[in-house]
Amino acid sequence: MTSDNPVADPIPAPLVQDDVTGEERASRESVPLHGPPSRISLGLKALLRDNPWPEFGYGEIEPFMLALDGNGRGGREIVIEVIREKQISLMVEVGCFLCGSTLQWLRASDELTVIGVDPWDGNWAGYIAQTALDPIRSRSVWHLSEAQIATIVANLRRHGNFAVAMNNVRLYKHRFYPVRRRSPEALKYLHLRQIVPELIYIDAGKHREDLDTAYELFPKAVLTGDDWLWPDQTGVLRMQEHVKSFAAEHGFEVRSARQSWVLLPPERQAG
User: Fold this and answer.
1) Which residue from 50, 48, 27 is spatially nearest to 177, judged by alpha carbons?
2) Coil, helix or strand at residue 31
3) How does DSSP assign 246-261, residue by residue?
4) With left for phi above 0 and alpha for psi between -120 and 50, is residue 72 left, alpha or beta?
5) Could you give the CA distance from residue 107 to residue 119 in angstroms, rounded to a whole number?
6) For residue 130, what pLDDT band results from cuts at 50, 70 and 90?
7) CB-based contacts of 178: which residues, under 8 Å, 6+ apart?
8) Would you list the DSSP string of 108-154?
9) How far apart are CA 125 and CA 147, in angstroms?
10) 1 falls in which pLDDT band (50, 70, 90)?
11) pLDDT digits (tens, 9 = 90+) for 144-157
12) Global pTM value
């Protein structure tokens, strides 16, 4: 295992929790979480039909790249390496925020399709404004001018998280499928639709359940993610603890670089 200096946790855990109402969830739901799905619900085309992009004037506001990885210091090169090395064609990203990391994956391979899982609820305008003032977290926005940050904050307040995030990846609309759910429910939702990702990137609530569900449903998928050096309120590196215990139980090796981690299966170790 390798690790370097930490990059501060990009998104507080509550921001990746689902707070939709029961009525809103029912309107999004077309596949039951229990019982066999209808054939018309299977595959990526049906997924996009049931999880459409928002109605929005794409291109009317300026897109931006905000990956919250300390401006390239988050170690995501080890994830990109796996995408390219294994020629990943379908990836699930759990916790997309404003799709800065999503752009990194999509630009890494022209053959890659990304299913983005995030509720995109609440409003992150205040969080971005605070990030720009924080002495550590501001590293992620050093490439943006004060005027650009002010515009991003204003657009988030006016249009909301979802529309602004989708505007950032609008040039990749044919390769990005948004799913406004939380994990691990979203993984079960995709499994019922017989969608099988080759790689799952986890950047959400730092819960062991995400790993266990991903492995149970998609045992052949490469598991990777963020928050390797993120400490909780007690100082415990919570995601690192979960990843290490999972790896020990299932015989995986862990590779890490700063905030990023990848689980290597036994067959790759042997090779």
Assistant:
1) 48
2) coil
3) HHHHHT-EEEEETTEE
4) left
5) 23
6) very high
7) 51, 53, 96, 116, 118, 120, 162, 165, 166
8) H-TT-EEEEE----S--HHHHHHHHHSTTGGGGGTTS-HHHHHHHHH
9) 14
10) very low
11) 999 999 999 999 99
12) 0.85
- CA dist 148 and 104 (Å) reads 20
Q: Are the C-beta atoms of residues 105 and 112 closer than 8 Å to each other?
A: yes
The pairing of beta strand 113-117 with beta strand 176-179: parallel
Distance of CA 86 to the CA centre of its chain: 19
Structure tokens that stand for 269 in this block:
């170790």
Preceding amide of 184 cis, omega within 30? yes
- pLDDT tens, residue by residue, 37-50: 678 889 999 999 99
Q: What angle, rounded to 10 degrees, do the helices at 100-108 and 161-168 form?
A: 20
**Which pLDDT tens digit goes with each residue over 233-253?**
899 999 999 999 999 999 999
Q: Are 99 and 116 in contact (CB under 8 A)?
A: yes
Task: Report the C-alpha gap between 107 and 109 in whole angstroms.
Answer: 6
Query: How many other C-beta atoms are found inside a 10 Å radius of the C-beta of residue 186?
Result: 23
Q: Which residue spans within the chain are E strands per DSSP?
A: 90-94, 113-117, 176-179, 199-202, 222-225, 253-257, 260-264
- Residue burial 166-178, b: 16+ Cβ < 10 Å; e: rest: bbbbeebeebbbb
Long-range contacts of 33-36 (CB under 8 A, 24+ apart): 33/185, 33/188, 33/189, 33/192
Sheet containing strand 199-202, strands side by side:
176-179, 113-117, 90-94, 199-202, 222-225, 260-264, 253-257
Structural domains in the chain, CATH included, are 13-270 (3.40.50.150)
Which amino acid belongs to residue 137? R
